Amino acid sequence: MDTHTNDLLTATYRVTPEVFWTVCHMRGDDGYDRIEAAQRYGWDAIPAWGRDGWDLGSWPLAVIFHRAIRQGYELAENVEGDITVYRYPTRGMRDAATDQLAFWHWKHQDQEWVAGIDSIDDASHLRGPFSWKRCEPENA
């Protein structure tokens, strides 16, 4: 199954991007310019994902963003200025969708840490936000 088209990354959760994304694209802003613009609207660029903090996206060409607003938890995928925004009722759903996006990007970039893994469902260490705490030995 192609995790990029899993239920969490479908039109069911897709929302219309804010106008600033289009303005950035029309100006020809690079990914770093879009990160700066997005921060003004409450978006955080997510540089790393999974237990070991593997690169998320391929900055500045592909950047994944998160934000929490009153209406829910949002995920934006910005690839060379093309934007897709999703909104979820829970942070867990947003993070699961990010797992799917991360895995899709890693597989298509032939990253060594996903070699031999067929699905994000088969690798709990690849899922969830990165934190230094996750890197600590369990019995420390």
Tally the structural domains. 1
Low-confidence stretches: 1-5
State the distance separating the first and last CA atoms.
38 Å
- Percentage of residues in DSSP E strands: 15-25%
Most strands sheet: 5 strands, antiparallel
Describe the global form: globular
Structural class: alpha+beta
Number of strand segments: 7
Strand order of the largest sheet: 1-7-6-5-2
Helix content: 25-40%
Model description:
The chain has 140 residues and is an alpha+beta fold. It has one domain. The chain contains 4 helices and 7 strands. The protein has helices at residues 19-27, 31-39, 91-108, 132-135; strands at residues 14-15, 44-45, 48-49, 54-55, 62-69, 72-79, 82-88. The strands form 2 sheets. Strands 1-7-6-5-2 form a 5-stranded antiparallel beta sheet, with helices on both faces. Strands 3-4 form a two-stranded antiparallel ribbon. Helix 1 packs antiparallel against helix 2. The chain is globular, with a radius of gyration of 15 Å.
Note the topology.
Elements: E1 14-15, H1 19-27, H2 31-39, E2 44-45, E3 48-49, E4 54-55, E5 62-69, E6 72-79, E7 82-88, H3 91-108, H4 132-135
Antiparallel strand pairs: 1-7, 2-5, 3-4, 5-6, 6-7
Summarize the structure.
The protein has 140 residues and is α+β, with helices and mostly antiparallel strands. It contains 4 helices and 7 strands, in the order E-H-H-E-E-E-E-E-E-H-H.
Key attributes of the depicted protein:
five-stranded antiparallel β-sheet, 140 residues, 22% strand, alpha+beta, disordered N terminus, two-stranded antiparallel sheet
